[in-house]
Give the backbone structure.
Amino acid sequence: MPKERAHLNLDDDLDLSGFAPKQEKNRDRLDSKALETVAEQSGFISREPKRRKKRQRSPYQAQLNLKCRESIKIMFQELSERLDIYDHTTFEQALLALIEKQGYFDLETQFRKLTK
Amino acid sequence: MPTIVFASSKGGAGKTTAAIVLASELARQSASVTLIDVDPNQHTAKWAKKDGCPSHIVLIENANEESIIDDIEEAETKSTFVLVDLEGTASMAVASAISRADLVITLCQGSQDDADEAAKTIKLINRQSKVLKRSIPFSVLMTRTNPAIMPRTYRHIVNEFETAGVDLFKCSLIDREAFRAIRSFGGIVNDLDPKEVSGIDKAAANAHEYASEVIEKLRAGQGKEKEVVNA
């Protein structure tokens, strides 16, 4: 026989009948853009750190320092400006043109492979 | 299934205490509860990880702006009640959680700053209701109140809310040592040691009164939803 007598349950229990987990996930998709606009208008803004765009590593890493005439340097830069391209592209295009002119097919294939 | 969101863009308004006390009271009635902690300070998570946390409570910690909607949807299928404790800032995470709420409890102490921030949250809820074309039930719960004294500022704030037609809890969360003690010892108010903490019975009664009113409000919200569906 248990030594402790039964207690009267006078606790006013909460009536939780009718509440149950959902059978399946809510499938309604909210108009997140509209909600975002409303939130921002109400002063509720994103506090998450802005994701920085991943910058692709430039393939132009090596330096080629060569001596040339001052006027040729200016002409080279003028050419880049006229073509509206960077100096390194001008250099590569000029190099390719020279390879093609000389008919160095092996170098042309190599060039195209490297710059793909 | 109901998702209850605790929101106030001001820190220290009593969101975590209100969430923990309600979770404890629901779990005490053997209901399954998921507590989602979206506050980077993770105070709710700290409490839930302490000994004595009811086994009916499942914790989702480190929720954030990006994960919150998925976390709520997942929890709604697993627990009878989902409680979301938000950070005390005007953030997009707050807005996202409110958009999924069945009841938003806006916490407010008897200070003008708290009331201003509560008003800001209420404006957001009203605007979201229009966009979502559904009413998002919300209510203001006054916190850290003194049962013996009702200061003039407190009275003024309550009056302002009432005049504006804002729904207020009839009860308030009284400033009790027991509510602070559970954060320190862990567990629920009813399990505290009376030798260590005073006023446990009063705090337990306050917690029960508050939980009962939450259930009432949820049922009233469900009723309104049915009316909308039938209309």
About this structure: Residues 48 and 54 of chain A are 17 Å apart (CA to CA).
